[in-house]
Design brief:
The chain is mainly beta. The chain contains two helices and 14 strands; from the N terminus they run αβββββαβββββββββ. Helices cover 6% and strands 55% of the residues.
């Protein structure tokens, strides 16, 4: 695919996670080498009353912005609802962007005056994504399949300001 594409695909924005001020959470140099990486990364999974809970925490932005990112994901026992929260703990950074890249076979439509997105895969039920009444946008994205073929796709984007005291973005994905 070439070095330019390789660098783009290694960027934080190319993944379903958060970025702060358009800065990568890690800086990769040659394959397998880092110029900058998180000091600590923690992940745990547990079940509470039939609900699966995943917690992940990274210090990828601590050196630059004095921010720790934590993502908590809870899935109902029947799989019909996923609750998530992205927490930014610290004082730095100006703007966050939360991205969820979609497979090309998922049709996405903004609904409820930009406060939710309807996601419809080619097969199966649809889903509704919402983020604590924040505005949601659909942006172009690219999906790279196993044969390194590029396909057009979309990404769900939620962004906002960091006010010097961190932020919390709660989101839901509900089967409809």
């Amino acid at each position: 695919m070439g070095e330019d594409w390789r660098q783009v695909l290694r960027s934080t924005a190319a993944h379903s996670t958060v970025s702060v001020d358009d800065v990568n959470s890690s800086e990769l140099s040659t394959p397998g080498e880092f110029n900058r990486k998180p000091i600590s990364v923690h992940c745990s999974r547990k079940e509470i009353g039939g609900t699966a809970v995943i917690e992940a925490r990274s210090s990828g932005y601590s050196e630059i912005f004095d921010l720790i990112h934590q993502r908590i994901i809870m899935m109902s026992s029947d799989g019909s609802e996923i609750l998530g929260e992205d927490l930014f703990d610290g004082s730095g950074g100006r703007r966050y962007v939360v991205r969820f890249h979609l497979h090309p076979n998922v049709q996405a439509t903004v609904i409820q005056h930009g406060k939710a997105v309807l996601l419809k895969p080619r097969r199966g039920s649809g889903w509704k994504f919402a983020a604590n009444n924040l505005s949601i946008e659909l942006e172009d994205s690219i999906y790279v399949d196993g044969s390194v073929r590029l396909r057009r796709s979309h990404q769900v984007v939620v962004s906002g300001e960091l006010s010097g005291c961190g932020a919390s973005v709660k989101w839901t994905l509900t089967r409809i």
